[in-house]
Write a structure and sequence with these properties.
There is one protein chain. By secondary structure, the chain is of the alpha+beta class. The protein has 2 domains: 2-49, Ubiquitin-like (UB roll) (Roll), CATH 3.10.20; 55-140, Translation initiation factor 3 (IF-3), C-terminal domain (Translation Initiation Factor IF3, 2-Layer Sandwich). Helix content is 53%, strand content 23%. It has 6 helices and 6 strands, in the order αββαβαβαββαα. It has helices at 2-10, 32-49, 66-81, 100-113, 139-165, 169-179, and strands spanning 14-19, 26-30, 55-60, 85-91, 118-127, 130-137. The strands form 2 sheets. A 4-stranded mixed beta sheet has the order 3-4-6-5. The protein has a two-stranded antiparallel ribbon with strand order 1-2.
């Protein structure tokens, strides 16, 4: 141990005890300040790369028109595609609170419209004068949709290749023969 300490001092480094309980204690000669700095940089980098899932909120009314419903639902779909959770709120005013089935119908319609890209995390429930439901992005559905889109892009290319191959003189004769 004293030998290691003198070696560390000669090299102007630190002697760090790695495993003090081992039969001979295990030590390491290193620049401890640099080690702590690098460790802090790695932690900072991992925090920066972490995905922050925010909760977005979209408010509906029981008497919402079809245009407003479509616009708000498209915005909800955009939030879900970005990876955010979405809290849907139906705001009741006055006597509307006595007809929660109207709010439930709207929330069910939103969930049905977004069914492939979202999953219902919290079912609709009445919370004072508001009815609340939370949707979360469905990662499995998004991955399968991306796979389908990739296959659909390959299919038109294959069909276009088939059409150009079939445009020869044999294709023209077949249509003329059928017209007789």
């Amino acid at each position: 141990m004293p030998e290691a300490l003198s070696i560390a001092r000669d090299l102007d480094l630190d002697l760090v005890e790695v495993a003090p309980m081992a039969a001979p204690p295990v030590c390491r000669i290193m620049d401890y300040g640099k080690f702590k700095f690098d460790e802090a940089q790695r932690a900072k980098e991992s925090r920066r790369k972490a995905v922050h899932v925010g909760i977005k909120e979209m408010k509906y009314r029981p008497k919402i028109g079809p245009g407003d419903f479509d616009t708000k639902t498209r915005q909800v779909a955009k939030f879900l595609d970005e990876g955010h959770k979405v809290k849907l709120t139906i705001m009741f005013r006055g006597r509307e609170v006595f007809h929660p089935e109207l709010g439930k119908r709207i929330l069910d319609r939103v969930a049905e419209t977004l069914g492939d890209s979202a999953k219902v995390e919290f079912e609709p429930r009445l919370d004072g004068r508001n009815m609340v439901m939370v949707l979360a992005p469905d990662k499995r559905a998004r991955q399968s949709a991306a796979a389908k889109a990739g296959r659909q892009q390959e299919a038109p290319a294959a069909e276009a290749a088939d059409e150009t191959a079939g445009a020869g003189p044999a294709g023209g004769e077949a249509t003329a023969a059928s017209g007789d």
